[in-house]
Amino acid sequence: MSHRRDWTLLDNIGCLVTNDPELGRGPLGLLVDAAVVVGEGLVRWVGPSTRIPEGAAGTRHDLQGRAVLPGFVDSHAHLVFAGERAEEFAARMAGAPYTGGGIATTIAATRAATDRALAATVSRLVAEGWRSGTTTVECKSGYGQSVADELRSLQIAEVYTPETTLLAAHVVPPEFAGRPDDYVRLVCEEMVPACAPHARWIDVFCERGAFDADQCRAVLQAGMAHGLTPRVHGNQLGPGPGVQLAVELGAASVDHVTYTTAADVAALAASGTVATLLPGADFCTRNRYPDARALLDAGVTVALATDCNPGTSYLTSMPFCVALAVREMHMSPEEAVGAATAGGAAALRRTDVGVVREGARADLIALDAPSYLHLAYRPGVQLIREVWQEGMLM
Ligand SMILES: N=CN[C@@H](CCC(=O)O)C(=O)O
Ligand SMILES: [Zn+2]
């Protein structure tokens, strides 16, 4: 390795999660007493502290025995919105069910907001996520529901992340009440062409009360025809066709997956579609949790994400999702940490994040703890000590 004065050696790492089984033990590719060299935004070298190449870097950064992981990959978030719905949350905690009806409140507030106010919210939530160790975040539109408002939502989102998603088919907006097919036509014929240049993904809310399988298929196919890759909100509030539709269209991910049948699990296991579980939403809506064990034991790739949004999951903490996954969904700490990092990367079809190996993006987090186990063991505690984004300490 050539000497690079502007590269940094992170050494004295007590426990390193690489997510590369060729680099270390088990599926998390664990190394103890490890070191990483970062430079020009990328990971340049990974290995045991005893084998650091001579002159590997100009600067040394001592981790003092802390655990280091890939930054979290939050593959499901709705960050472009205005207002909040704390009263709706309180009513739910008093027994009211979640039906998705509150989405209309956020649509009205978002339409009335200035671009500047919407951008400030995205910026605040991305920064909140950073402080919890999120270095890659996906961001959906879906609270605009008009051509102009979906377009500006994506234009604001793309300033903060390349992982932007057109969720025009979130709910039928009030002006189309009783005419869902007219709205679907508007989405397919006008919103998709206008918004596709600003999105990587096309998403739909496939659920009773939102859009049915045929309407969702039409929207997803319209997006695919414009170069977008599908992902699906499905099986959140009850059993439904979301999982099967996602598999049929080769979606990158189907998200929520709270109510599944054996056939859904088998279809996912035979597919390349990731199941993204959103335990924050189930927590905040007092829903049941997905059967993560059935999915994992069948061999399905599982991701964890926050679903940050003002209705069902107003949170940005991936560590909280890891803790919920372990405590409530019976995932092992290894499975949960893998799902929050490599799983999220798989859900976004990214090979450069969610992993610490030579050539990957140098997105790393250091915990105020000796092991990744503490993420589940110390729920609610701020353990994120350092966040390195593309090799820069934030
Ligand atoms: N389920 C659909 N969309 C969001 C909730 C949106 C809202 O209630 O504002 C979700 O993923 O949970
Ligand atoms: Zn969502």
TrEMBL record:
One Gene Ontology CC term in the entry:
cytoplasm
Amidohydrolase-related domain location:
68-370
- What pathway is it annotated to? Amino-acid degradation; L-histidine degradation into L-glutamate; N-formimidoyl-L-glutamate from L-histidine: step 3/3
Cofactor(s) for this UniProt protein: Zn(2+); Fe(3+)
Which residues are listed for Fe(3+) binding in this entry? 76, 78, 233, 307
Q: What class of enzyme is it?
A: hydrolase
Which residues are involved in binding Zn(2+)? 76, 78, 233, 307
* Residues annotated as binding N-formimidoyl-L-glutamate: 143, 309, 311
Question: What note does UniProt attach to the cofactor annotation?
Answer: Binds 1 zinc or iron ion per subunit.
The cross-references to SUPFAM superfamilies, in alphabetical order and at most eight, read:
Composite domain of metallo-dependent hydrolases, Metallo-dependent hydrolases
Source domain of life: Bacteria
Classify the main location: cytoplasm
Q: Which reaction does it catalyse?
A: 4-imidazolone-5-propanoate + H2O = N-formimidoyl-L-glutamate
Q: Do you know which Pfam families this protein is assigned to?
A: Amidohydro_1
**Which GO molecular function terms does the record list?**
imidazolonepropionase activity; iron ion binding; zinc ion binding
Instruction: Write the record's keywords in alphabetical order, separated by commas.
Output: Cytoplasm, Histidine metabolism, Hydrolase, Iron, Metal-binding, Zinc
What's the Enzyme Commission number for this chain?
3.5.2.7
Name the positions where 4-imidazolone-5-propanoate binds. Answer: 85, 143, 170, 236, 312
Q: Where's it found, cell-wise?
A: Cytoplasm
Q: Which family does it belong to?
A: Belongs to the metallo-dependent hydrolases superfamily. HutI family.
Q: Return the NCBIfam families for the record.
A: hutI (TIGR01224)
Function description: Catalyzes the hydrolytic cleavage of the carbon-nitrogen bond in imidazolone-5-propanoate to yield N-formimidoyl-L-glutamate. It is the third step in the universal histidine degradation pathway.
According to UniProt, the name of this protein is: Imidazolonepropionase
Task: Tell me which species this is from.
Answer: Rhodococcus ruber BKS 20-38
